Amino acid sequence: MFRVLKIILVAICLIFAFVLGSQNPQLVQVNYIIASNTLPLAMIISICFALGVAIGCFISFKLFSQLKWQNYRLKKKLAPEKDNNKLVANKDT
Asked: In Å, what is the CA distance from 1 to each residue of 5, 8, 14, 40, 63?
């Protein structure tokens, strides 16, 4: 089910990108620090979108990995306490 939703979402994004590109064929001059270039508006929008997605994925991955590492350390810290509780429970019986 989740795979089908992902495929539908990707198809919708591709259709949206095609419509956006076909509606914006104008050429736009982009001035860099050391150069300038003339590109179609749709390409500029696509490049900016791709850079935003890449930066967002990088930041999300960094935060997610930090939280996973913190979770791992807390579970490791809690594991000896669980073993001690089991030993105490076994001694009582």
From this structure: 6, 11, 20, 38, 28
Tokens encoding 54: 């890449």
pLDDT of residue 42: 80
Q: pTM higher than 0.70, yes or no?
A: no
**Ramachandran category for residue 35: left, alpha or beta (phi over 0 → left; psi -120 to 50 → alpha):** beta
Structure tokens at 88: 């105490």
Tell me: the pLDDT tens digits for 23-44? 778 899 989 888 899 988 888 8
Q: Considering only CA atoms, which of 24, 25, 23, 28 is closest in space to residue 39?
A: 28
Helix-strand-coil percent breakdown of the chain, rounded to 5? 80, 10, 10
